[in-house]
C-alpha cells in the first residue's frame, strides 16, 4: 500500500513537472522576443470588414491568431481622422505625425523607422504592397517626405534605402524624369548601378545576398482575384529571399486595396480584397507554424467606409452598409501570434504597435 502511494506521488510529481514545462514553453514563446517579424497591414480594414469576411468565408483565418486587441488610429491631432501617411508613420516609428507626412514628425524632424532599425541590427527587410510601392503605407517604412504625393522623391529614397526586397506596383514612379528620377531606358541600368536586381516575374530566379525589386505594374496591381502576382505569392517570394538572413528579418505586407474598395463603397471589391487578405493570413499562419521564432501581426492603419454588416431584404443575405466614403475614426482590430504576441492583447493606440515592434528589433 505504502509502495503504491509512493508510486502515485511520483506519478503526480512527474505530471506536475511535465505540465509546468509545457506551460513554461507556451509562456516563454509568447513573451520572448521574436527573431523575425511579419507585419500585415490591411489598409482600411476595420471590424466591419472583418465581420463581412467572417460571414463570407468557410474558414476565417484571423481567428487562428493567438491574441487580439483594438487600436485607435487618430493622427497627431486627436480629434481628426488619420490618413494612410500619418498611420504608416505611427506603425513604422511609434510616433504620431500629421496627415500627409511620411517618416517626419509634425515639425519636420526625421524619425527612424523600424526598417531602418532592423537594417542597423543586420536584419534583412522587405516591403510588399498591391498598390504602388511608393504609396503612403509602404513608403512610410523607408521614406521621409513632407508630402505623400511626391512619388518621384519617394522612389529615389526607396532606391537609396537599404531595403532587401520590395515587391508591388509603381514602375512609372521610378521613371519620373521631371523630379530627377530615372529615364525609362535607364531604369534597369540605374537600379543595377544601385546594386539592385530587378525582376519582372514573380517566379524569376533571384541572386542571393543582393537587393531585389519587383515592380509588376506601371501603377497599382490589378484587383483581386485577377491580381498576378497575388498578395500571397508576393509575400512568399519575399520570405524566400529574407529567410536566409541569420540575423532575422522584418517584412511588411500591405493588402492595399481594401481601402480603395471602402472609398468606392463597392461591396464586391471589398469582398474580393478581404478574401485575398484571408488567403494571405492562411499562408502566413502556416509559415509561422513552421517558423515558430517569427512574430506574425495583422492590423490596419485605419478604417475606411464606416462599414457595418446588416441583413439585406433584397438579396436575402448579409451585406455591408456604408457609413462614409472616407476613413472613419473607428477602432481597428489587431491580431498577433508567435513570440511577443501577448503584448497585443490590448486596447491601445496604433503607435504602441510601432513602439513594441521597434523594441523587439532593438533588444534581441
Ligand atoms: Zn484611404
Chain-wise SSE layout:
Elements: H1 2-31, E1 36-42, H2 47-56, E2 67-72, H3 84-93, H4 114-120, E3 124-132, H5 136-139, H6 151-160, E4 165-169, H7 187-193, E5 196-199, E6 211-215, H8 231-242, E7 249-255, H9 258-263, H10 267-290, E8 294-299, E9 303-304, E10 308-312, E11 317-321, E12 327-328, E13 332-337, E14 347-349, H11 350-362
Parallel strand pairs: 1-7, 1-8, 2-14, 3-4, 3-7, 4-6, 5-6
Antiparallel strand pairs: 2-13, 8-13, 9-12, 10-11
Helix pairs in contact: 2-10, 3-11, 8-10
Bound molecules: zinc ion.
Key features?
364 residues; alpha/beta; Alkaline Phosphatase, subunit A; 10-stranded mixed beta sheet; two-stranded antiparallel sheet; binds zinc ion
How would you sum up this structure, described in words?
The protein has 364 residues and is of the alpha/beta class. It folds into two domains: 1-31; 33-362, Alkaline Phosphatase, subunit A (3-Layer(aba) Sandwich). The chain has eleven helices and 14 strands. It has helices at 2-31, 47-56, 84-93, 114-120, 136-139, 151-160, 187-193, 231-242, 258-263, 267-290, 350-362, and strands at 36-42, 67-72, 124-132, 165-169, 196-199, 211-215, 249-255, 294-299, 303-304, 308-312, 317-321, 327-328, 332-337, 347-349. It has a ten-stranded mixed sheet with strand order 5-6-4-3-7-1-8-13-2-14, with helices on both faces. Strands 9-12 form a two-stranded antiparallel ribbon. The protein is globular and about 80 Å long. The model is unreliable at 20-28 (pLDDT under 50). The structure holds zinc ion. Zinc ion (ZN) binds at residues 44, 84, 259, 263, 304, 327. Zinc ion binds next to helix 9.
Amino acid at each position: 500500500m505504502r509502495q503504491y502511494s509512493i508510486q502515485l506521488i511520483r506519478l503526480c510529481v512527474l505530471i506536475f513537472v511535465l505540465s509546468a514545462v509545457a506551460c513554461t514553453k507556451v509562456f516563454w514563446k509568447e513573451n520572448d522576443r521574436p527573431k523575425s517579424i511579419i507585419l500585415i497591414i490591411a489598409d482600411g480594414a476595420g471590424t466591419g470588414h472583418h465581420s463581412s469576411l467572417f460571414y463570407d468565408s468557410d474558414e476565417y483565418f484571423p481567428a487562428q491568431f493567438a491574441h487580439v486587441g483594438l487600436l485607435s488610429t487618430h493622427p497627431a491631432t486627436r480629434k481628426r481622422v488619420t490618413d494612410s501617411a500619418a498611420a504608416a508613420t505611427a506603425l513604422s516609428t511609434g510616433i504620431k505625425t500629421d496627415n500627409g507626412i511620411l517618416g517626419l514628425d509634425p515639425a519636420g524632424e526625421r524619425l527612424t523607422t523600424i526598417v531602418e532599425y532592423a537594417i542597423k541590427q543586420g536584419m534583412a527587410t522587405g516591403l510588399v504592397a498591391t498598390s504602388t510601392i511608393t504609396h503612403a503605407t509602404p513608403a512610410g517604412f523607408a521614406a521621409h517626405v513632407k508630402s505623400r504625393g511626391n512619388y518621384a522623391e519617394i522612389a529615389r529614397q526607396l532606391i537609396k534605402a537599404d531595403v532587401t526586397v520590395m515587391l508591388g506596383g509603381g514602375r512609372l514612379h521610378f521613371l519620373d524624369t521631371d523630379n530627377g528620377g530615372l529615364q525609362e531606358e535607364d531604369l534597369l541600368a540605374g537600379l543595377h548601378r544601385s546594386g539592385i536586381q530587378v525582376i519582372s516575374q514573380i517566379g524569376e530566379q533571384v541572386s542571393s545576398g543582393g537587393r531585389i525589386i519587383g515592380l509588376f505594374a506601371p501603377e497599382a496591381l490589378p484587383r483581386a482575384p485577377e491580381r498576378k502576382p497575388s498578395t500571397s505569392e508576393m509575400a512568399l517570394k519575399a520570405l524566400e529571399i529574407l529567410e536566409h538572413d541569420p540575423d532575422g528579418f522584418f517584412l511588411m505586407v500591405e493588402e492595399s486595396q481594401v481601402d480603395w474598395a471602402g472609398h468606392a463603397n463597392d461591396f464586391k471589391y471589398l469582398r474580393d480584397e478581404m478574401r485575398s487578405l484571408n488567403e494571405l493570413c492562411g499562408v502566413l499562419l502556416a509559415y509561422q507554424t513552421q517558423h515558430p521564432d517569427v512574430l506574425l501581426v495583422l492590423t490596419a492603419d485605419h478604417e475606411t467606409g464606416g462599414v457595418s454588416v446588416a441583413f439585406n431584404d433584397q438579396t436575402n443575405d448579409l451585406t455591408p452598409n456604408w457609413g462614409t466614403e472616407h476613413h472613419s475614426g473607428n477602432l481597428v482590430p489587431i491580431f498577433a501570434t508567435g513570440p511577443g504576441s501577448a503584448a497585443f492583447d490590448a486596447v491601445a493606440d496604433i503607435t504602441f504597435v510601432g513602439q513594441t515592434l521597434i523594441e523587439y528589433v532593438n533588444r534581441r
